[in-house]
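Usage

Read records sequentially. Each one opens with the input sequence:
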Amino acid sequence: MIPRALLILALFALASPPAQALDIMQPLVYEKSIAIAGWLMSEKLDGVRGYWDGRRLLSKNGKPFQPPDDFTRNFPDFPLEGEIWGGRRTFEKTAGIVKRQEAHEGWRELRFAVFDAPTAPGGVEARLGQAVAWFAGHPSAHAYVIEQRPVSDHRHLRRELKRIEALGGEGIILRRPGSPYTRGRSRDILKVKPYADMEAVVRAHLPGKGRNRGRLGSLLVELPGSRTRLKIGTGFSDALRENPPPVGTLITFKYYGFHASGILRFPSFLRVREEF
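and closes with the structure output:
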């Protein structure tokens, strides 16, 4: 006879299948060689990716979020994709709110910024039009559809990127007009993000794991003129992982602004700093 405790656990497992990552449309990185005249642009919001499946608000990994019932009360019965957003430079706060496993008042500070309706028919404009029409008839204080504006050329894009960067924004998303919704990485959607660079001195080589076992995993570096140290684990070619810059070498790395805590965001190796 099966013990009662094991039976309860088995039934719970059947009722609660493990979350699976969603097969969603994802952007490639913008390159200047791409002709973008007439594409649609919008600000890339620094929030948490969300997917409304018609009943629940999910993470990109398929895990249910737990917003209060009234947060999603006027959401449609068809899927929406968007960013759960609390404003510029608030990623850590937003992430802290959504990761809690119970509904709470913190969600009142967030909104669901919609950038697609995956199952709606037609190109991106038609799909977003369906979302706009829904919320026009079912107003929500907690959701809106992100405005899309045409870009005229690369110069126009650079101006807009500088404007958004000055406001503390993360970057721009470009969408090809009339493009269908496709799963995975798509050439019909591009992300445009600024980055800054900085120099640092290599202080140690940290061993790698997995496919990098036996070679460089990351560099421990120190910012010149301070005792601030950080690890840089991306941006290396296989050749550099086999023969990393020696301790004491001055390198240049790129990064994407700062977290609210002051920590550099996404530092990545760029090059060895050469003196001519």
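Summary fields computed downstream for this record:
- The domain at 19-192 is CATH 3.30.470.30 (D-amino Acid Aminotransferase; Chain A, domain 1).
- The first helix runs from residue 4 to 15.
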